[in-house]
Amino acid sequence: MNRTAPAPISSASFESAFQQAATTENRTAFQYLMALYKGNFLNLTISIVFFLVKSLPVYVLPIVTANMINIVAQPGQHSLRELWINFAVLIAVVLQNIPTHAAYVSFLSRAIRSVEAGLRGAMVRKLQQLSINSHRELAAGRLQSKVLRDVEAVEGMSKQLMLAFIPAIFNVVIAFGLTLYSNWLFSIFYVLTVPAAIGVMQMFKRRIRQSNREFRKEIETMSSHVSEMVEMIPVTKAHGLEQVEIDRIDTTLRRLQGKGYRMDLVEAYFGASSWVTFQIVQVVCLLFTAYLAYTGSIPVGNIVMYQGYFGMILGSITALINVYPMIAKGTESISSITEILRSTDIEDNAGKLKLTRLSGEYRFEDVQLKFPDGDQHVLEEVALDVRAGECVAFVGESGAGKSTILNLVIGFLNPTSGRVLVDGVPLSELDLSEYRRHLAVVPQTNILFSGSIRDNITYGLQGITEEQVMEAVERAHLSEMVSRLPRGIDTMVGEHGGKLSGGQRQRIAIARALVRDPSVILLDEATSALDNASEHHVQQAMQQLIQGRTTFIVAHRLSTIRHADRIVVMKRGRILEVGTFDELIACKGEFYNLKQLQM
């Protein structure tokens, strides 16, 4: 038997198959599941064949037991040799279970694990494709719940379907067929189990679905709150609000506990009701077979055979019923996952222009921007030409629209009306993924990941030499800090750069921008976390960096933009003044007033 691991699945092809099912109206959970297993039907078919073979002891045992009882009950009509033959047959079918069961699990596991990896890969791929607006609407904790818990629930449902549901169906069909062949009258009793099972499921179906939906939503809420709590710990401790956070999470946990308790109780009543129903049916069946044997209609040993098959059918139907809560949970998780995979708010770059080089000339043509849920325009009648290689700074009070301008340049936002042109081409017609390769962004809130300083500086880049890295370190004024660290540039920064100071994190973010040698640079308060000495060195490095490159700067400290080619003063989404530092001071307008406030 081949014990090699299954070949890696393509999350792109997996997402395409599943999304095709997800975007079709009125799709059932079964149809979604079939989309999940597309490409794995061969493994499933082979596993079913091995299941039938490995289950032979279950099918043969009632027959052999009945034969042995009948041989012992009527020794004059049978030889001892018949007893040994039945014994040998039983031993043979039992021993074959070891290799066939291993083969069954092997092929089944290939299919299930492939789907699990493919589904998570498809979700990660989709999350990378979603627009920034979509990510603003989705809490990180809820996304983690969908990627982890919901995929796990779908995997659990798949396992239950393959390990319990489908085998139970085969057991019912085979047991019913063997009984029908032996005694058609007795098989009528088997048919009675079907309406009993359906009746029990119909009684509890709505309550099970509702309890699973409520529990799933409460899990997502709890995950979101815990994620927020972890991020807020420094603020919480700084203000002595630990108990407030504990009480807030405790409230969420109590709600989750209540939803979970109600779900468990519904499932408990469901399981107990199905068990009692089938036990009553089995007792009636036993009475009927005993009556047939008493009247001589069947041999005494056949009571064991019919009871064995009937017990198999009841056990299989009970398994079908008991797996229903898991199916309901998996179905609800599929609905949760499709909320992400069906989203159409993505950056679609298919067929768009790929820029091989970028000069960095920008034109804002009467740009207006209004968010769907907002009452006022964020930007109004913004008209601005930025020459290639020019350094333009944007200043103004908070909420004036400065960072929104940068988001338009990056392509995170699209104008409600008007256009943003890059080198004469509308930004909406460009492949944004390729376009952004020419940009370097230093955001106001620096973002580092759990890795070394080197990893964070060279993030996403291939073929960067040691000289290039160290040059970026030097120009970002990181050399002295790196030299003091035990492992130098290979020192781990911790989660979100937690082992470093705010200024150190910001300088690493600046080095990340420097090493990219970009055509366009966007600096959103890039030096806000630096002390005066560090700011002086970084400003010198920035002056070298921006030579010949288009640069957009958002700044509150007006002294840091004295050397900008032009300064754009904004207020309430509009451009009020444009000019050099000295020109704007001389005008004694809005910029002059802002400068006076900082003196």
Automatic annotation (TrEMBL):
The protein's location, in the record's own words, is: Cell membrane
User: GO molecular-function annotation terms?
Assistant: ABC-type oligopeptide transporter activity; ATP binding; ATP hydrolysis activity; cysteine-type peptidase activity
In the bilayer, the protein is annotated as: Multi-pass membrane protein
| UniProt entry tagged with the keyword Hydrolase | yes
Q: Which SUPFAM superfamilies match?
A: ABC transporter transmembrane region, P-loop containing nucleoside triphosphate hydrolases
**Which parts of the sequence belong to the ABC transmembrane type-1 domain?**
46-329
Task: Spell out the protein name for this chain.
Answer: ABC transporter ATP-binding protein
Protein's organism: Paenibacillus albicereus
